[in-house]
Amino acid sequence: MTREDKGHYATKHRPERKVNAAIVEAVRQKASSGEISCAVAFKIASNSGVPPEEVGFTIDHLEITIVKCQLGLYGYSPKKSIIEPAETVSPEMEQAIRASLVNERIPCAAAWEAAGKLNVGKMEVSSACEALDIKIVSCQLGAF
Predict the structure, then answer these.
(1) For the whole model, what pTM was predicted?
(2) pLDDT single digits (tens) 93-105
(3) Residues of the domain holding 12
């Protein structure tokens, strides 16, 4: 979404799609000043037994902004992203990333999976992707 679209998140979804009332309540309880962090959204999904995408849809429907992406890609003030390219990328990291590419890009979920397999932080994978000039796509919450 572009900056001009900010505050109009619900418009990216089909109008007939309905929200889950329990998820609405959970998001409203955890949101603050019109924002909710990626980590909190994932916690809601886990606690509610729904996919992260469902929580992301609800957040969009409520016109709440997702902040502090766990991959460091968006939602950080004053800069949007806090990720810098890694100085070096281990062969294992590069192999894990390249093995997960879809159309020369890595989905968010695959980046998380690579971090888990390599026992490193998610932002470490993001930094490696930056260094390798590989874009991370398909946010699990639907933010990008």
Answers:
(1) 0.88
(2) 999 999 999 999 9
(3) 3-67
